[in-house]
Each structure stands twice: as C-alpha cells, then as structure tokens.
Amino acid sequence: MAPVDRPFPPGDYPVVVVGSGPGGLQTSYFLRRHGIEHAVISKDEEPGGMFRQFPLFDRLVSWTKPYAPVKEGTREYEWFDWNSLLADDPADWVGVGQFMDGTSEFPSREEMHKAITTYAEKNKIQVRYGCTWEGTERNENGFVIKTSEGDYSCRVAVFGVGVAEPWKPPNIPGIEDIPHYIEMGPPKTYAGKSLYILGKATSAFEVADGLLPWAKSMVLSSPSEVKLSVVERSLAGLRARYTQPLEDYAIGGRTVTILDASTERIEKMHEGFRVSLRGSMANWELSLDFDAAVATTGVSAPLQDLPDIGVATFSGGRLPGQTPYWESASVPGIYFTGSITQGAVGMRGPGGAAVHAFRYCTRILASHIAQRQFGQTPKRTPVKGSDLVDFLLDEATRGPELWNQKMYLARVVGFDKKQGLVDEGIHPLAHFVDYDRPDGVAVAVTSVEGVPSPVFYVRSGSRVDEVIGESDLMLDFATPENKRHLTSVLKDVTG
After folding, report:
1. In whole angstroms, how large is the CA radius of gyration of the chain?
2. Closest of 316, 314, 315, 317 to residue 304, by C-alpha
3. Model-level pTM greater than 0.85?
4. For the stretch 350-385, what's the b/e string if a residue is b when 16 or more beta carbons lie within 10 angstroms of its beta carbon?
5. Cα 215–220–224 angle (5° rounding)?
6. Helices (H), 345-479
7. pLDDT tens for residues 328-375?
8. Buried b (16+ CB within 10 A) or exposed e, 412-424
9. pLDDT, tens digit, for every residue of 430-452?
C-alpha cells in the first residue's frame, strides 16, 4: 500500500496528467500558472522520463550553448538552448547549461536528467510516483484513469507517456529474432562484429555512429535512398556528426555499406544471421551473413487501451490522431503532451518530438485547456496599428517558437472590431489557416530552397492569403523591402 503522505491519492480531480517526463512536468507547471487543479501520476520513481534511459550513446542530439550572443535565460536565448524547460517567471527557470561540464555543447544524458530533476524540485512540481496507469474508461463526467493504486476520475486527461515503445514491421519473416535498437546491449558487445542495421533513418545513423569504434563492419539498408537534407535538418535537431557513417561509405573505407534494398527475410543461424535483400532502385538479390543485427524501424506511443475507448490512431496505431491543440481527434477531453504531440500534423508536417519543440506546445496546451475546458478568458494585449508591421517582423526575426517549430507555430494578431488589433500570442499555424476563426494575421518562419524566410497568413472572413517575405543573409527580416510589402498587404484588412 502506498504511503499516505504521497501527493494526489486516487480520487476526483478536474485534470489528471499521466507522465513525469519533460512534457508532463511542463504541463503541470503551466496548468498551475492558470490555477487549474490537477493531479500528476507516473509509473516512474523520479522525474525525467526517457532521459533516464535515452539517448543510447549518452549525448543528446540537441544543443545548449552556455555562452551565447544573448543573455542566458531570456526568450531569445532559447534559440541557443534547445534543452531547458520553460518558465513564465525567470525565478523558476533552470538552465541545462549550468549542469554541463564544457566538454561538448550537446549535454549528456546525466546532465539533462539533473536539469529536469532540479526543475521539478525548484518549482515544487508534485507527482505521485510509482503509480502505474493500467486502463481508461469514459463516463458522462469525463474519464476514469485506472491505476495500480486505485481510480482517478477527471474531466480532462492529459497523456505524456512518450514515444519509446519498440515497433517492428510485421511483414518481414524473422524480424522477431533480432533486437530493436531500444533493446540493444552496450556498444562493447558489438566489438569486432559484422552488423546489419535494418533502416536508414535517424535512429539507424545514431546506432551506426555510436558503433563505429566497435563494429568491424556495418551494412545499413532500407528501400528508400538516404535524404541527407532530412538527416541533417531533422526535427529532432540531429547533429552533423551523424553523417560520419555516410562519409565512411563515400570514401570507400568498406567499414560502412549503405544499400537501397528491402529486407526479404532474416534467418537465425548457429552464429549470427543471414539476411536476404532485394534491390529497390535496381533489380538484384543478395544474401549476406552477419554476426549481429538490429532493427531501427521506429517507435510507438504506449497508448494501452485508449483505442478501445475511441481514440483514433494512425501510422499503424503508433500515434494518436490529434487536433492542432493536441486533443484527441475522436475523443474530446483527452489531450497529449511531450514527444507524443508529433501526432498533431501541422501545415507542412508534424511538430518536433524533441524538448526544444514540444516545450512550447505544453504552454499553449495549458492555456487552451484553461480556456476551452474551464472558461478562462485569454489575456490579449492591444497592438497599435502603427506598430503592427514592426511587431510581426520582429517576431519572425527573434521568436524562438517560430524558429524551433517552423511552419508549425505562429504569432497571431487578431482584428477585433471592438478592441482593434490584439496580440493573441503563439498558436498552432494549422488552426489559424484551416479552422474558422476571427480575422487576423499570423506570422511564421518557412524555408524557401533551404533559406529561412518570414511567411504571413492574412485571414479576412473565410479567405486566407499567404504572403512569403524576403529573406536576409543575416536573418534579420525587418528589412525596408519586407516593411513596404507587409504594409501594403495589411493596409486594407487593418483599416
């Protein structure tokens, strides 16, 4: 039986948050800022979520620069710090940089875990640890979250359970005999071995890079060719050193081979594996023997019985379908936070699964829940008509939310007939463009042939016009050309 002094015993709560990773902790912080009573439960024994186990090879793929061109802890500093959690009050902020030893701008797993733990402690974020979510029911009042310690009734449920369950395609004979990369042993267990890596996406290159000092040879294979631009500009903030296996292949060192081929069959041999391959770009067949093999075929969210109560999923059930505000597309009142928010597809794809991306979603999510579910009135700041163009261009130039979530998040200014121009804050761009809402203008950041540029969406009634601004070599979008262009575009609608 759980000790009686632990927080949030089973019972009735307006909101229940499941998970104590960065997403769950951030959501709790911002819900409290809105005065929303809630309980946080977690099967883990401490905060940190996936950072108690991942990344596999210790270093994160996202950077934190303690000595940046701007003051640490400011909004603009978030450009240079992709790992620290957010705080509305500067006194609440905990920077990952203060835990880093200076040997790399990419924090270690231990450094990241220390920062998250300190954030939770400093902000007194209470969690009922060791309380495992076991099932979910719907009723006329909302939901019942069944746990190892009893039932939690709530009007709103927020799941921050991560996306870290191994997933393998079901149509490859023998794939069940090789480990998923999440289940790999220590790197030294691959010392001197030939290795087959099934896959050529981000996780495949992470594994290949981590095992370069150990494995004597590696073959990476998947039907699609490697898209280097995707590898280097991954939403996860992939660091450039993950291209090292590609460089080894290109110079013909014969330690790394990259094939465009489908895996037809994997046979477990007395020692190792035999892999049968079929070329996808050319017609050939090949069988190769390896000492070891690993599947880098993706991960899924542990949704448990949520699909049974109506939560729609996609990608083979790996992710829940979500509205732009991370609510279940089929079950109102169920929301998602943390890396699982990548299931909400934006204007040009999903949002990021890394902290530097979803940390902004948690702030918006808490505000949205406070407004939609509990009737709070949003805070909206007036914007002078004479300041509008400068305001939008400054946001496009300096707003970390817009840069870290390109074409996904936007700064919105509403056109209110009574109040005039009002700053509505940061919102999902897809909601502004695709859903019926009052008139206004949204600014985001896009890339045109790899070059960042500001982009503006002007809504007037049911019509939405897209206006792509000019880029700048120094990424300062407040140029005379952009000011003239945007002034002309907004002249009619702002009146």
Report:
1. 24
2. 317
3. yes
4. bbbbbbbbbbbbbbbbbbbbbeebbeeeeebeebee
5. 170
6. 355-372, 388-398, 400-404, 429-434
7. 999 999 999 999 999 998 887 778 788 999 999 999 999 999 999 999
8. bbbbeeeeebbbb
9. 999 999 999 999 999 998 877 89
